[in-house]
Amino acid sequence: MVADLSQLVKAYDVRGVVPDQWDEPLAELFGAAFVQVTEADAIVIGHDMRPSSPGLAAAFARGATARGADVTLIGLCSTDQLYYASGAQDLPGAMFTASHNPARYNGIKLCRAGAAPVGQDTGLTEIRTLVEKWSDHGLPATAATTPGTVTQRDTLTDYAAHLLGLVGLSGIRPLKVVVDAGNGMGGHTVPTVFEGLPLDLVPMYFELDGTFPNHEANPLDPKNIVDLQARVLAEGADLGLAFDGDADRCFVVDERGQGVSPSAITALVAARELARNGGRGTVIHNLITSWSVPEVVRENGGTPVRTRVGHSFIKAEMAEHGAIFGGEHSAHYYFRDFWNADTGMLAALHVLAALGGQEGPLSGLLDRYDRYTGSGEINSTVDDQAGRLTAIRAAYEDRDDVRLDELDGLTVTGTDWWFNLRASNTEPLLRLNVEARDERTMAAVRDEVLTLVRA
Fold it and tell me: Of 61, 223, 320, 346, which residue is the least packed, with the fewest Cβ within 10 Å?
């Protein structure tokens, strides 16, 4: 019987419940299909700490070697460590993780050589088609005379050295930093990356445990950084860092225990990357990042480029424009010197370098980068996404004091405010983000739009 992959293969990755939606035999087919579509002679595979990850990764390797590809297993790693291995070894890669999803989930993030993305338009559709075919008819005979080999390699030390070579940290003042790894892969990478730096590290939930016994490894949800906020205050720390399950995203808490907007981090890192590049370069940002980001980019000599939400769009724009950096409001940060891939760890090192390079607190440092008031993302369940978007466009399109664009959903921009309303690809939701120059204006615009959305 043909496997139903409609709920398993997403726009950018593979993700679903194990074993209900997929299992090791299916992972083996994905490995074979990945090799056939990429025409790879060799690949690299890593995995996170979820109970199902080692078995799924091993099955994927069996499928890959059956098609004649040599496999390098790098074992436990963060997603950006897998991207490092793909970039440094110039090999296609597969990372077994479901990021911040609950323990029963698992998935595969795939990339071509040099950490180039694999999504629906760049190979994932072909991989899905092959897996569906083979799940019904079985793997065809391979033309390979011999199966591929399997070797193991630890890349953690090399990954850390590469990141540290991109940020000057040797002269920073001592800092006390609390890190909440959420029982995810940050507990594996942070000790090695931070080793030898002038940091008083206070670890939280560093034990690798894919059942997530303390809280979900999703710092985007405010309830999951409550423990970190309290610990920063209790320790009198200079800042706190929170990583998601596969440690490719990093969220920041200042010395007051307040969460820092990822847009402010994007602006700070953009300024630093532009300085590294002589005040020249392009910076990519998605359309729900703060107005602060393009302002700071221009003030530091750079050229901002606005794009849709989603890592495939960011990476495509990075490559097209030769951009030096890109940031999303979801705390994904992309670097030219990291093969255009995203790494929360490198963003965290930039924050540490900026803070440690001056005497003031983090909140004061970030004042220049956090200039506006945002609503955060507000989700509304609707029966007809397209119909509601059309109705809201109609409510604003005849106004002389606003401008509209539809790069991604609907963006309406006034003199002192803007909002973006986008449909979810996977749920019957409309997602609203509002920003304004002051809290009162933001609240008024937010409430006006929500009244229309929920009418």
Answer: 223
